User: What shape does this take?
Amino acid sequence: MLTPDLLQQIIDQLPMSIFCRDRHGRYLFANQVFANEAKRGSPADVVGKMDADLPWGDIFRAEDQQLLAGGVPLLHQQLHCNRGEDTCWMEVHKIPLYTDQGEPWAVFGMVNEIAQRKHLEETFKKQQLLQRFLLDAIPDLIRFDDHNGVLLECNQAFLDFIGQEADEVLGQQIPHQLVASQGMDHGECCLLDASGRGLHMEISRVDVPGGDGHSLGVLTLGRDITGLRTTQAQLQQEQHYDSLTGLLKLSRFLQTCRHLGGRNATLVLVDLHHFREINDRFGIRIADRLLSQVAKRLQQLVPPRSLLCRVAADDFCLLLSDFNEPLQEWNQHLQQQLMEYYQVEDHRIQIPVFLGLAQGRASDAERLLNHAEAALAQGKRQQQYCTLFDPELHARLKRRQLIAAQLPLAIKSAQLVAVYQPIISSTTHQLCSAELLCRWPHPELGMISPEEFIPLAEEMGVIGQLGLLMLEQGCTQLAQWQTVQPDMVLSINLSPLQFRDPALCTLIQGCIARHGLKASQLELEITEGVLMENADQIETNLDNLIAAGFQLAIDDFGTGYCSLAYLPRLKVATLKLDRSFTQGLASNSATTAIVRSVIGLGHELGISITAEGVETQEQQRWLTDAGCDRLQGYLFSRPLPPLEFAASYLG
Assistant: This one.
């Protein structure tokens, strides 16, 4: 039988405070836990007491009266209470009790300390808040749906993308705004955000497993890669297309051609002649705009499905695949159209155009380009505006490639040697000086003409080394010869590219110093093209050479565009008439008039005249009578090796 004592024992064992106080606030019973909280020894010490008699005071009286009046239990009330110097969280449950007649009788209460639970709740809230902060800090779009398509979670980036608030979409079935390929996969697509802006998105969808092995739902991630794809497109554009003209670059052009297979094709190389002079005259900006107009005109002229690229500064290339029109007529039309005037701002510019052509398979475009380059070079030499590559030209190209491959080593090992051609006085018929000329006795190809290897040396950037080799050989030989002919002068040709070397004068001075020669013993031959250069370094080198005492001669005079105003300013010692004037003396009255004028002008300026290419006695007599100072040519001697030259002229 449940007695009051037994009931007291039971409630004393419960790990919570239990109490009951009447409607006046007087305690009717309590358990031991409550007595301990009230600072009383036993529950009996609490019975009959009021809250005013206990440590917490009469703070619950009004709440109890309101509870008894309302009749609704007060459950799960959480209070932050003081416990001496400490505080703690309590959860309170209070139930109003009534008599059989319905009169308020008492309040029954249970109080449980929930400090650990509150700590866990606070920790959980912090974790949730941190999780929310982290989720919303991620710029990628995140949504998590159950398998019924109900949105369970998302981040702020996703809400911004769809233009809605969380309370509008969470727990709802909404259209899947992030779409990937079928299944849990990865893909890319273009989507419109809430503002109508198009974005390139990278979409990933993954299944999220639960602890029991079952799927919790589908996590979808969306990353905006619009900037990345735009940058990649820009880089690809810069990699494959010329920034000035918008045409294909050569590397992309050749790569595309390789995919065309064995189709019959014609490759046309277009060269803008004298473009450098236009650049110097009008400036880079106008020259660039001219190139852009040339590119646009080419795009208008080429047939559909043709490939067009910019090869170099002033060269363009196009590939005609399966071309059925008469090639000669089409090329002539192309060349004529490209040579029509271009209106570039206030300038009306016309530029000569040369075409080099090669035919073969489209996939072999790189070889065709080499053939077209050879045809173009041949056409320029012959002043033929349209040149088709032929097998003979191919043989010359192979020879050129072999020479180019072996030239640097040949220079380094001094396989190229100096020969000397005498320059004779027209009055005394005695030796005045000698011109050093370069020869290459090749072990397989025989004697290679300078007309072959000098342009290659300039193209390959080894003309400086070749010039120093010839200078060293010439100075060595002159030092030996001056013992028998102290006043002998040696003429040495300098390439225009050598004049771009700031150390040119120092190198030549060092060489003559090593061999005990004077600057006046060297006559440095330059072409008219050097004088037309605007580069500051060329001007400086010319001034330095004149100041150092070297004699200057203008070689092949009359074949370039030299301004006569340069002659007195540079204090030129010699003008060397080009052999074309000498050859035309007997047959061309205009040539004889020009030669007489040049000789007279030179003498007025104190400049001596040397005629090159003298081959007949008739030419010798005419030049002597006209007052030409010195003569050079096969009439007197071909270029000779040092020993033969010494035996013939320094005996």
